[in-house]
Design a protein that fits this description.
Blueprint (H helix, E strand, L loop, with lengths): L1 E5 L5 H11 L4 E4 L14 H13 L3 E5 L13 H17 L4 E5 L11 H14 L7 E5 L12 H10 L6 E6 H7 L7 H11 L5 E5 L2 E2 L10 E2 L9 H8 L8 E4 L9 H12 L1
Parallel strand pairs: 1-2, 1-10, 2-3, 3-4, 4-5, 5-6, 6-7, 7-10
Antiparallel strand pairs: 8-9
Helix pairs in contact: 1-2, 3-4
């Protein structure tokens, strides 16, 4: 099992990689630029290359996460800004040797046209990826939200990928808190979730996992992450059943949990390694 957490790039891309090694993480996630900006970053390519080589030397996997304002269903006046930012994120992640760039599934944009959100997502992904030649993929993350909200079913995730011009350039990132909150992962029937995901081709394209507990009950629709072993509604035995699945092994399991509620990320990573490593 590869456990890690989200890390800051305040000391550069190589600084995040070295921090991962320091805390004993086998993987990590980072924002390629300011998490609150859609600006295009003129990044240091030599430093990014050093990060790539360091991770390769120490067998550490990384994924990038798009800034908070990134939206695959943006209003018309924001489309070009989002597209340029996403392309920039891919370039940075590729230079750092990252597996992919995580982006949230889009949202509904029309009360009268239920397919409009999906169509815009596909158009945006095509615009970003049609001329992309790198190895780094776009990783679509499942949404939180009440059951039935956009981006909360395996069918939607797989459908959007399959309808894009270059599905081979797209993978998935599973957020366990989002899955629990939205009803995608009913923990009392993990076996059925795994079987359905494999049957639909979801797990075959799963590249990373946001490993989070939930501060609210199943099907609540609330996206509030809790630490794995405390303060959450997902039980250890339910995590165990998920982690025992062969489709999960060797994937990066990245914490996005609170680090100021009694346990640091370093300690939590070590606890995960002792429990399931």
């Amino acid at each position: 099992m590869r456990f890690g957490c989200h890390l800051s790039i305040r000391n550069g891309y190589i600084g995040a990689a070295k921090q991962a090694k320091k805390i004993g993480a086998a993987c990590y996630q980072y924002f390629p630029k300011s998490p609150r900006s859609l600006s295009v970053k003129n990044f240091n390519k030599e430093e990014a290359q050093a990060c790539k080589e360091f991770c390769r030397e120490h067998d550490i996997l990384s994924v990038a996460h798009t800034p908070y304002p990134t939206n695959l269903t943006p209003p018309e006046n924001k489309k070009d800004i989002v597209l340029q930012s996403l392309k920039n994120d891919l370039e940075i992640a590729e230079a750092c040797g990252s597996l992919g760039v995580v982006v949230h599934f889009g949202s509904s944009i029309s009360k009268t046209e239920p397919l409009a959100g999906y169509q815009l997502m596909i158009a945006m992904l095509n615009a970003v990826l049609d001329n992309w030649e790198g190895k780094t993929k776009i990783l679509i993350e499942n949404n939180a939200g009440k059951p039935g909200s956009l981006g909360t079913t395996i069918e939607e995730l797989v459908m959007v990928r399959s309808l894009c011009n270059s599905p081979e350039k797209i993978g998935f990132c599973l957020d366990t808190c989002h899955a629990f909150a939205s009803g995608l992962w009913a923990t009392e029937s993990t076996k059925e979730f795994l079987e359905k995901g494999s049957e639909k081709g979801y797990f075959q394209e799963l590249k990373a996992i946001h490993f989070n507990n939930s501060k609210y009950p199943a099907n609540s629709g609330v996206d509030r992450h809790a630490n794995i072993f405390s303060g959450g509604y997902i039980k250890e035995e339910e995590f165990t059943e998920l982690l025992n699945a062969s489709v999960i092994r060797n994937l990066p399991l990245i914490l996005e949990t609170p680090s100021d509620e009694g346990i640091t990320h370093e300690d939590e990573v070590n606890c995960l390694k002792q429990k399931w490593g």
